[in-house]
Design brief:
The chain contains 13 helices and 7 strands. By secondary structure, the chain is mainly α. The longest helix is centred in the first third of the chain and has 29 residues, at 87-115. The strands form 3 sheets. It has a 3-stranded mixed beta sheet with strand order 1-2-3, sandwiched between helices. A two-stranded antiparallel ribbon has the order 4-5. Strands 6-7 form a two-stranded antiparallel sheet. Strand 4 (263-268) and strand 5 form a beta hairpin. It is elongated, with a radius of gyration of 27 Å.
């Protein structure tokens, strides 16, 4: 359905931890792998419910990063992101995962108890490789209850953060929002400490993945808040070379030798008529000999305005296959361009410039 799924490395690392756990309790080490599969199943139940809810709400997803505590959504457009963080959508998404896990736990408990009247559902430890059927029930319940804790990025914590963002103009990258992330990490560290004190391997693992999830999602939210405030006029290249449709490929190659550009706007007068890549020029010269730029230039391109945000342009570059250059125009006049080749350098230099301006506000 066009959604890219990614499995975090720590999810694979958890399989090794479960194997060691199975060996430590004296059972077959493969039961540890069975426990890992049950954790994956609990995450699958949660994420399927959330994906169905997102589809019902009309949200478009780009990627889902899977962690042992659940998935982190990345939305395909700002409209979906805004919808997911407001109104009934945020409550529906927050309720879908825990509700699915808890209902699954109740169904499994009823099934196992009904099939065997003496099923030890309340025996301890609740989660252990030595009792996979009991662990199946309690892992579903544990994941559902875990997301009711007000610790970011768990569901209840995400609701709390969105509420705090609403009270500060909708910006989740405020000091209050960042403080909530810190609170979530403090809860995670507390779970790790308590787990080690009680010799319980489940609590430290849960705390560790809450901590990692909070960092990952906080970085993503902060990055999004930055790129959505940077305008094209702040990072566009204003010193660049252009080509004419009537230039020969040999002349263009000479221009390439003396330029660091990979992509060139093709203009007729002040009007943009195409884009051509250095590699395209070289390959055509090798195979077909000399010709004119108008014969090899691409007439399919997107144009940005100086006031467009960098976040919107990055989404265009991501969505457009092979899109490496976006000209910036005022009316029909080209005033700059944004190149993937130079984007990271421009962002780094802009960060240094803003830092310098904040230190010398009078200049």
């Amino acid at each position: 359905m066009g959604v890219e799924f990614r499995i975090h490395t720590f999810f694979v690392l958890l399989a090794v931890i479960c194997l060691l756990f199975g060996n430590a309790v004296g059972s077959n080490p493969l039961t540890g792998l069975g426990l890992w599969l049950l954790i994956a199943a609990a995450v699958a139940v949660r994420e399927i419910a959330r994906l169905l809810t997102a589809a019902w709400l009309g949200l478009r997803l780009r990627t889902v990063l899977l962690l042992p505590i659940g998935g982190l959504f990345a939305y395909a457009n700002p409209e979906s992101q805004e919808t997911a963080n407001s109104g009934r959508a945020q409550y529906a998404l927050a309720a879908a995962g825990p509700l699915a896990n808890l209902l699954t736990a109740l169904f499994l408990a009823a099934t196992f108890t009904g099939a065997s009247g003496n099923f030890p559902i309340l025996a301890t430890p609740y989660i252990t490789p030595a009792a996979l059927l009991r662990s199946m029930v309690w892992l579903q319940a544990a994941l559902g209850l875990l997301h009711m804790m007000p610790a970011y990025p768990l569901d209840a914590g995400r609701l709390l953060r969105t509420g705090m963002a609403g009270s500060t103009g909708g910006n989740v990258a405020t000091p209050a929002g960042r403080a909530l992330v810190g609170l979530g990490q403090l809860v995670a560290l507390t779970a790790i400490f308590v787990g080690f004190f009680l010799h319980d391997p489940i609590l430290p693992a849960a705390g560790f993945f809450i901590f990692i999830g909070a960092q990952l999602e906080d970085q993503g939210v902060f990055y999004q808040s930055v790129v959505d405030t940077v305008q094209m006029r702040e990072v566009m290249l204003t010193d660049y070379a252009t080509l004419s449709p009537s230039d020969t490929l040999a002349d263009a190659l000479h221009r390439c030798v003396h330029s660091l550009q990979e992509d060139f706007p093709v203009v007729r007068g002040s009007q943009l008529v195409g884009i051509v890549n250095r590699q395209r020029i070289v390959e055509t010269l090798r195979t077909d000999g000399n010709g004119y730029i108008q014969g090899v230039m691409s007439r399919t391109f997107q144009v940005a305005k100086p006031e467009d945000t960098l976040g919107a342009i990055i989404r265009r570059i991501t969505a457009g296959r092979g899109l490496t250059l976006i000209p910036v125009a005022e009316g029909e006049k080209i005033v700059g361009m944004v190149s993937v080749q130079n984007l990271m350098t421009s962002m780094s230099l802009l960060a240094e410039q803003r830092k310098l301006d904040s230190q010398n506000p009078g200049n």
